[in-house]
Amino acid sequence: LIPSIVPPAHLLNAYTLMTTQMQAASLVGPVLAGLALATGGSALAFGVDAVTFAAVIVALLLMEVPPIAGG
Hints:
- By secondary structure, this protein is mostly helical.
C-alpha cells in the first residue's frame, strides 16, 4: 500500500515514520489502556477501543489509493 501512495523518493522516510509510529503505539497504547481501566473501568476501556476502531475504519474509507498499473 505504501509504495502506491508515496513517491519513490520518499519511500525510506515513509517506512521509517511507519516503524516509529508502530513502536510508539506499542509503548503508549498499554499505558493509555491502563489509565482507562484505572479511572473508568472496563466499560471506558472498551468504549475508547470501539471509538478508535471506528476512526480507523472511517480513515480507510476516505483513503484514495490509485489503481495498480496493469491490473
